[in-house]
Amino acid sequence: xxxxxxxxxxxxxxKEEAIATRDAYGEALLELGKERKDVVVLDADLSGSTKTGxxxxxxxxRFFNIGIAEQDMVGTAAGLALSGKLPxxxxxxxxxxxxxxxxxxxxxxxxNLNVKLVATHGGISVGEDGASHQAxxxxxxxxxxxxxxxxxxSDGYExxxxxxxxxxxxxxxxxxxxxxxxxxxxxxxxxxTIGKAYTFYMGRDANIVAMGIMVSIALEAAKILKQEGxxxxxxxxxxxxxxxxETLLNTAKACRLIVxxxxxxxxxxxxxxxxxxxxxxxxxxxxxxxxxxAFGCSGxxxxxxxxxxxxxxxxVRTIKEALGR
Amino acid sequence: xxxxRGCRERDITFLKAQAKLVRVEILKMLxxxxxxxxxxxxxxxxxxxxxxxxxxxxRPDNPSWRERDRFILSKGHAAPLLYxxxxxxxxxxxxxxxxxxxxxxxxxxxxxxxxxPGVEISTGSLGQGLSVSNGIAIGLKMDNLSSRVYxxxxxxxxxxxxxxxxxxxxxHYRLDNLCAIVDLNGLQIxxxxxxxxxxxxxxxxxxxxxxxxxxxxxxxxxxxxNAFDEAETVKGKPSxxxxxxxxxxxxxxxxxxxxxxxxxxxxxxxxxxxxELEVNG
Lengths: 325, 281
Ligand SMILES: Cc1ncc(C[n+]2csc(CCOP(=O)(O)OP(=O)(O)O)c2C)c(N)n1
Ligand SMILES: [Mg+2]
What we know:
The structure holds two protein chains of two kinds. By secondary structure, chain A is α/β, with parallel strands linked by helices. Chain A has helices at 2-11, 21-35, 47-50, 53-58, 70-82, 93-99, 101-110, 138-143, 156-167, 214-227, 245-254, 270-281, 301-307, 312-323; strands at 19-20, 39-43, 63-65, 86-90, 116-119, 149-151, 173-176, 181-182, 198-201, 206-210, 232-236, 239-241, 257-265, 286-291. In chain A, α5 packs parallel to α7 (101-110) and α10 crosses α14. Chain B is α/β, with parallel strands linked by helices. Chain B has one domain (12-280): Thiamin diphosphate (ThDP)-binding fold, Pyr/PP domains (Rossmann fold, 3-Layer(aba) Sandwich). Chain B has helices at residues 2-33, 39-43, 45-55, 79-88, 129-142, 161-172, 193-196, 202-208, 221-233, 267-280, and strands spanning 70-73, 149-154, 178-184, 212-217, 239-244. In chain B, α1 packs across α3 (45-55) and α5 (129-142) runs parallel beside α6. The two termini of chain B are 29 Å apart. Chain A binds chain B through residues 43, 45-49, 53, 65-69, 71-72, 94-95, 98-99, 127-133, 297-300, 303-304, 307, and chain B through 33-36, 76, 101-105, 107-110, 112, 122-127, 156-157, 159-161, 188-190, 196-197.
């Protein structure tokens, strides 16, 4: 088992360089567009930032810039789905899930339409633009909707697989991507399946269940803890809904403490999902690392991760305190 | 009459000089921050300078003065422009401008009313400012205050449905104490507004919604000042100033360039820009 964690560490930054998940999305979408003629893409005046611009350039006839009108974009995507197309609608996560929430609820989820909402600029790692542009509630907002699937990939490699997987799946999907570069963490033989978590290593003392950029930070924390004799594992829970309850249950049974880690509010997101399941099925000592009922602010991504307690050191401290070490 | 004309000429000479300094401060703070929105701050600089340095009644030493005129920056990404005029009119020390977008600064990437006195409401998510302006305007009328409300929108921003919901509301409630301004610089992020999603004919849209429409060149001082004067005299309906502007105005190599929507000047570009502003006055 040790070897597995080790091999993942080695892989980091070696084979695949650090890229932003939004960049991986742009590439994956372009490839998908070549393979499937039913793929259509919508954006709301942010195609440069969301990276749908690549698809737009290659397939101008299948790209629709709806302008600064997110509600209209989601409704249009629903209509395209009704016409048998496979729409991917992208903008920043705040505007996609916040501004157009009721359109997503009514037109997309209630009717269970095949619309893929792929949003970028999730979390505080957006940086200098500040709170108005940092989505810290989007996973909560999407998770609460019936029929919705919620996925938060951890790196570029996983993102590419996610995009292909959701294209082959029927139903509403929300994918949350980031602005900043993230290290490659997933092993080469990894295959993403909707609803399946990936266990890097199962710890006997503690396990960190993470999503998105927090996966690489959790791996860092686990490494530090291991050196200090605290056996800590890491689970990449990239599908937040439906939750991989089987993996979660096994993980909780194997250790004394579960820590969830998300670049998101601790209210309603991954931490909540994990807590809800474990409370009812296997009450477990649990801590939630995440944004504690606060808005983001301007700063560099690194400064903000520190300010909001989302660094490897923060995870290490939480686990040591919880275990009384 | 003759006298007031001379007054206006003096006013314009003063405003011109201030607008130049506003542009200098915008460019300087953006260069220090290393990110932020250059084009849309410069395109509206003359209009917002006219408001803060001439038209609006406000007290920088008492930002919550009840009888002040209100300014709502609906296109919140033009925060550097708002910060420049607030600092230059005395809301806070001008040295604070170099903290733009830095951790802990009241000068957030997009305006934050909790952090900075003088900011009426936090903006940054486009399309919301006009509704808030309506609410303020209704409240002022209820309290029999003669204060006026100014709301600045972008031309891409008016693609948001909420803008038109608010446009209908303002006309319905006859908010003649409200003056919206649309910064028609012709560009948004993904390209020209006409290519991304056309908004024209923009004047007839607003008049069809029941607004008094005033069309101006947004860099012509006479027209800017006359527009705000006219808006004040129109009763029973809100006014909108449709201001044709140039994105990046004042710096030749930023003018009309879509790439400079959300990019800050480099140190080298800053130096060139400041030189240009110096020469052209
Ligand atoms: C609701 C919302 N959607 C998208 C954005 C991202 N965004 C910021 S500025 C901008 C373009 C604005 O264009 P325009 O209104 O013409 O502004 P200007 O040209 O005056 O800078 C966009 C799409 C946003 N801030 N808010
Ligand atoms: Mg514009």
